[in-house]
Write a structure and sequence with these properties.
mainly alpha; 11 helices; single chain; about 0% strand; elongated; about 210 residues
Protein backbone atom coordinates (compact mmCIF):
# COMPACT_ATOMS: atom_id res chain seq x y z
CA UNK A 1 0.00 0.00 0.00
CA UNK A 2 2.70 2.51 0.95
CA UNK A 3 4.44 1.85 -2.36
CA UNK A 4 1.56 3.40 -4.32
CA UNK A 5 1.42 7.09 -5.16
CA UNK A 6 -1.98 7.90 -3.70
CA UNK A 7 -2.09 5.19 -1.04
CA UNK A 8 1.10 6.45 0.59
CA UNK A 9 -0.50 9.89 0.90
CA UNK A 10 -3.45 8.29 2.65
CA UNK A 11 -1.10 6.65 5.16
CA UNK A 12 0.59 9.97 5.87
CA UNK A 13 -2.85 11.54 6.38
CA UNK A 14 -3.61 8.80 8.92
CA UNK A 15 -0.39 9.57 10.77
CA UNK A 16 -1.29 13.27 10.76
CA UNK A 17 -4.88 12.97 11.98
CA UNK A 18 -5.69 9.73 13.83
CA UNK A 19 -5.33 10.23 17.58
CA UNK A 20 -5.36 6.54 18.51
CA UNK A 21 -1.68 5.86 17.83
CA UNK A 22 -1.90 2.48 19.56
CA UNK A 23 -4.42 1.37 16.96
CA UNK A 24 -2.31 2.86 14.16
CA UNK A 25 0.65 0.94 15.52
CA UNK A 26 -1.18 -2.38 15.58
CA UNK A 27 -2.91 -2.01 12.23
CA UNK A 28 -0.30 -0.18 10.14
CA UNK A 29 3.09 0.36 11.72
CA UNK A 30 3.56 -3.25 12.77
CA UNK A 31 3.19 -4.35 9.15
CA UNK A 32 5.47 -1.58 7.88
CA UNK A 33 8.23 -2.47 10.32
CA UNK A 34 7.95 -6.17 9.49
CA UNK A 35 8.68 -5.33 5.85
CA UNK A 36 10.99 -2.35 6.22
CA UNK A 37 13.55 -3.70 3.77
CA UNK A 38 10.97 -3.75 0.98
CA UNK A 39 9.28 -0.52 2.02
CA UNK A 40 12.41 1.61 1.70
CA UNK A 41 13.09 0.30 -1.81
CA UNK A 42 10.00 2.16 -2.99
CA UNK A 43 10.06 5.87 -3.86
CA UNK A 44 6.76 6.33 -2.04
CA UNK A 45 7.41 3.87 0.77
CA UNK A 46 10.59 5.62 1.84
CA UNK A 47 8.66 8.89 2.09
CA UNK A 48 6.30 7.23 4.55
CA UNK A 49 9.27 6.27 6.72
CA UNK A 50 10.77 9.76 6.43
CA UNK A 51 7.45 11.18 7.60
CA UNK A 52 7.48 8.95 10.67
CA UNK A 53 11.02 10.03 11.54
CA UNK A 54 10.82 13.66 10.46
CA UNK A 55 7.23 14.70 9.66
CA UNK A 56 6.71 17.14 6.79
CA UNK A 57 10.41 17.64 6.23
CA UNK A 58 10.78 19.94 3.18
CA UNK A 59 14.05 18.20 2.34
CA UNK A 60 12.05 15.11 1.36
CA UNK A 61 8.62 16.45 0.41
CA UNK A 62 7.88 19.04 -2.29
CA UNK A 63 6.00 22.19 -1.32
CA UNK A 64 2.89 21.04 -3.20
CA UNK A 65 2.71 17.85 -1.15
CA UNK A 66 3.32 19.68 2.12
CA UNK A 67 0.47 22.04 1.26
CA UNK A 68 -1.77 19.03 0.71
CA UNK A 69 -0.85 17.60 4.11
CA UNK A 70 -1.64 20.90 5.83
CA UNK A 71 -5.19 20.87 4.48
CA UNK A 72 -6.03 18.28 7.10
CA UNK A 73 -4.73 20.32 10.02
CA UNK A 74 -8.15 21.77 10.75
CA UNK A 75 -9.72 18.34 11.15
CA UNK A 76 -12.33 18.76 13.95
CA UNK A 77 -12.15 15.08 14.91
CA UNK A 78 -8.47 15.16 15.85
CA UNK A 79 -7.98 16.43 19.41
CA UNK A 80 -4.47 15.23 20.26
CA UNK A 81 -1.59 17.69 20.03
CA UNK A 82 0.38 17.02 16.84
CA UNK A 83 3.71 16.96 18.69
CA UNK A 84 2.44 14.23 20.98
CA UNK A 85 0.99 12.21 18.10
CA UNK A 86 4.24 12.37 16.14
CA UNK A 87 6.27 11.46 19.21
CA UNK A 88 4.10 8.42 19.91
CA UNK A 89 4.36 7.19 16.33
CA UNK A 90 8.12 7.71 16.36
CA UNK A 91 8.43 5.81 19.64
CA UNK A 92 6.75 2.83 17.97
CA UNK A 93 9.07 2.72 14.95
CA UNK A 94 12.36 3.89 16.47
CA UNK A 95 13.53 0.54 17.85
CA UNK A 96 12.72 -1.63 14.81
CA UNK A 97 14.20 0.95 12.44
CA UNK A 98 17.42 1.18 14.45
CA UNK A 99 17.63 -2.60 14.64
CA UNK A 100 17.29 -2.80 10.87
CA UNK A 101 19.82 -0.03 10.29
CA UNK A 102 22.38 -1.66 12.58
CA UNK A 103 22.04 -5.05 10.90
CA UNK A 104 22.16 -3.68 7.35
CA UNK A 105 24.44 -0.67 7.76
CA UNK A 106 27.22 -2.03 5.56
CA UNK A 107 24.71 -2.01 2.70
CA UNK A 108 22.42 0.95 3.29
CA UNK A 109 25.20 3.43 4.08
CA UNK A 110 26.13 3.23 0.39
CA UNK A 111 22.59 3.64 -0.96
CA UNK A 112 21.42 7.04 -2.13
CA UNK A 113 17.98 6.97 -0.50
CA UNK A 114 18.34 4.55 2.40
CA UNK A 115 21.46 6.28 3.70
CA UNK A 116 19.43 9.47 4.13
CA UNK A 117 17.07 7.60 6.45
CA UNK A 118 20.06 6.93 8.70
CA UNK A 119 20.93 10.62 8.68
CA UNK A 120 17.29 11.56 9.25
CA UNK A 121 17.14 9.31 12.31
CA UNK A 122 20.38 10.33 13.98
CA UNK A 123 21.07 13.94 13.06
CA UNK A 124 20.98 16.51 15.85
CA UNK A 125 17.76 18.49 16.36
CA UNK A 126 17.02 21.06 13.67
CA UNK A 127 14.57 23.91 13.22
CA UNK A 128 12.59 21.59 10.94
CA UNK A 129 11.62 19.25 13.79
CA UNK A 130 7.90 19.13 14.62
CA UNK A 131 8.47 17.12 17.81
CA UNK A 132 11.33 16.13 20.10
CA UNK A 133 12.91 13.19 18.29
CA UNK A 134 14.50 11.15 21.08
CA UNK A 135 16.57 8.16 19.96
CA UNK A 136 17.41 5.68 22.72
CA UNK A 137 21.13 5.94 23.49
CA UNK A 138 21.80 2.22 23.12
CA UNK A 139 20.12 2.17 19.70
CA UNK A 140 22.14 5.15 18.54
CA UNK A 141 25.28 3.47 19.84
CA UNK A 142 24.51 0.21 18.01
CA UNK A 143 24.09 2.04 14.71
CA UNK A 144 27.16 4.19 15.23
CA UNK A 145 29.15 1.05 15.97
CA UNK A 146 27.87 -0.45 12.72
CA UNK A 147 28.97 2.64 10.78
CA UNK A 148 32.39 2.46 12.41
CA UNK A 149 32.72 -1.23 11.53
CA UNK A 150 31.92 -0.39 7.92
CA UNK A 151 34.84 2.02 8.01
CA UNK A 152 37.31 -0.61 9.26
CA UNK A 153 37.79 -2.12 5.82
CA UNK A 154 41.18 -1.36 4.32
CA UNK A 155 41.35 2.11 2.84
CA UNK A 156 42.36 1.87 -0.81
CA UNK A 157 42.01 5.31 -2.42
CA UNK A 158 39.65 5.30 -5.40
CA UNK A 159 39.11 1.55 -5.06
CA UNK A 160 37.51 0.46 -8.32
CA UNK A 161 35.86 -2.55 -6.68
CA UNK A 162 34.14 -0.69 -3.83
CA UNK A 163 34.86 2.76 -2.50
CA UNK A 164 35.68 3.10 1.18
CA UNK A 165 32.86 4.79 3.15
CA UNK A 166 34.88 7.96 3.60
CA UNK A 167 35.21 8.28 -0.18
CA UNK A 168 31.83 6.97 -1.29
CA UNK A 169 29.55 9.97 -2.04
CA UNK A 170 26.50 8.77 -0.10
CA UNK A 171 28.35 7.26 2.87
CA UNK A 172 30.70 10.25 2.97
CA UNK A 173 27.77 12.67 3.10
CA UNK A 174 26.00 10.85 5.93
CA UNK A 175 29.15 10.34 7.99
CA UNK A 176 30.18 13.98 7.62
CA UNK A 177 26.77 15.24 8.73
CA UNK A 178 26.65 12.88 11.71
CA UNK A 179 30.15 13.89 12.80
CA UNK A 180 28.98 17.49 12.84
CA UNK A 181 25.98 16.46 14.92
CA UNK A 182 28.36 15.04 17.55
CA UNK A 183 28.75 18.55 18.94
CA UNK A 184 25.13 18.49 20.14
CA UNK A 185 24.80 14.86 21.24
CA UNK A 186 26.01 12.71 24.13
CA UNK A 187 26.56 9.57 22.04
CA UNK A 188 29.05 10.53 19.35
CA UNK A 189 29.90 8.81 16.09
CA UNK A 190 33.43 10.18 16.29
CA UNK A 191 34.09 8.16 19.45
CA UNK A 192 33.13 4.92 17.70
CA UNK A 193 35.23 5.70 14.63
CA UNK A 194 38.22 6.54 16.81
CA UNK A 195 37.83 3.28 18.72
CA UNK A 196 37.28 0.98 15.73
CA UNK A 197 39.50 2.71 13.18
CA UNK A 198 42.20 4.24 15.35
CA UNK A 199 45.05 2.42 13.63
CA UNK A 200 43.74 3.37 10.21
CA UNK A 201 43.11 7.05 10.78
CA UNK A 202 46.55 8.08 9.61
CA UNK A 203 46.05 6.32 6.27
CA UNK A 204 42.92 8.31 5.49
CA UNK A 205 43.52 11.45 7.52
CA UNK A 206 43.32 13.73 4.50
CA UNK A 207 39.96 12.26 3.50
CA UNK A 208 38.67 12.59 7.07
CA UNK A 209 39.70 16.25 7.14
CA UNK A 210 37.76 16.71 3.93
CA UNK A 211 34.68 15.17 5.58
CA UNK A 212 34.92 17.46 8.59
CA UNK A 213 35.46 20.47 6.39
CA UNK A 214 32.26 20.07 4.39
Amino acid sequence: MCAEEFAHRFLIAVFDTVDDTVLVGKCILKELMANIGEVIKSNHGIKVIHHLIHPRDPRFFPASQLALFKEGDGNPYSKKDAKLRYAELFAYVQKPLCTYFASQMDVIIYESRASLLVLDMFEAPTNLDLFERAVVAEDRAACYAAIARACTREFVPCDAEKLHPIEHPHAHFVISKLLKSDLKLDVKLGDFIAKECGEQLASWASALLCILGK
